[in-house]
Amino acid sequence: MPGDYARIVVASDGEVPPGWTGYAEASAAVREPLPHPGNASDDRLLLYFTSGTTSRPKLVEHTHTTHPVGHLSTMYWLGLQPGDVHLNISSPGWAKHAWSNFFAPWLAEATVLVYNYARFDAAALLGQLRAERVSTFCAPPTVWRMLINADLAEVPGDLREAIGAGEPLNPEVISQVERRWGLTIRDGFGQTETTASIANTPGQPVRAGSMGRPLPGVPAVLVDPATGERVEGSGEGEICLDLSAEPYTLMTGYQGDPERNAQAMEGGYYHTGDVAARDEDGYITYVGRTDDVFKASDYKVSPFELESVLIEHPAVAEAAVVPAPDAVRLAVPKAYVALVEGHEPTADTARSILAHAREHLAPYLRVRRLEFYELPKTISGKIRRVELRQREEGVVDDRPAGEFRDSDFPDLRG
Length: 414
Hints:
Blueprint: E1 8-9, E2 21-22, E3 44-49, E4 59-63, H1 72-78, E5 85-88, H2 95-108, E6 111-113, H3 122-131, E7 136-139, H4 141-148, E8 161-164, H5 171-181, E9 185-190, E10 196-199, E11 213-214, E12 220-223, E13 235-242, E14 253-254, H6 258-264, E15 269-278, E16 284-289, E17 294-296, E18 299-301, H7 303-310, E19 316-326, E20 330-339, H8 347-360, E21 369-372, H9 385-392, E22 403-405
Parallel strand pairs: 1-2, 5-6, 5-7, 7-8, 8-9, 20-21
Antiparallel strand pairs: 3-4, 4-14, 9-10, 10-11, 12-13, 13-15, 15-16, 17-18, 19-20, 21-22
Helix pairs in contact: 1-2
């Protein structure tokens, strides 16, 4: 390679080629630093696309402050310490890749382990956790759900922290890992537009279903979508960041989209589009995207609540619930289900899953329809419910081939 570069070599035989500096002597090879490029803390550093779960991906701008300084919150959530070996499962197209493969481990002086594979294999991943002595492990719910369907066996000896990221983690997954490994998966919340904002941090008691409390330095609040007023104490509202506190974890804006920026920053808050409930101790529980929550027979339905019950069934690997048009109720909950290997998409399987949901859900939340289907996903592994909703639009009397309904089974009617 042409150019006057410092060339450092690790020579196993001790022979250092001409023009190179041996690794052992590299610290003595001092050179004059290059002039500073003059970039400021608020200059652009990175552009990342959002995941596109509910609409087309948007291009987000982050700076030399929001990344990496903002990721002090992410480091705190992950529980990273100097000397840790950190494995994060994510695609480079996902902002979480920057969070956990670069900024947070670098801030913590931890080692980043990258495991490259062409096709996901739960057993191979578990082998890497043990072989590379991973101490902190972060993965999206899709990966955790695949892992619990594999043989978790004994806990990897050096593993100290288990983290879930990308989507809310279903309680059943958390309880299975806790039962087999004795480790509690710590959930958290953030977006491409922010860094980690809300999380269960190391040492904090984890409450079932909760994604924790606002992280230090992050002015996360709940805002009533109807009134725009801040929700105080316990209650439900949209997760927002208070712009008057000048959050250093927040993007500068959507690239080339002033209209969307104005919508996102309306009323003095950054609006995440995610709805959550807060209890009297400040623990925040995810309810759903404002786009995903729907009404059935005039009752508000959170798909996440129904999906968490569905995946407790031994045949269900993953599930996504969307509204299906209904002539009487206007809309009813329909579940798209991906099966665990070894289970067949038969009427008996459908009846068993619908019966399980009926037993564990209130009557107004009952899953009325079910279809076995390969769930559409983003590059980061998030389920694209928008595609499933679009598939249901306008279908009232027409019944898709392969769809099962509770009315098909006499004992499930009503």
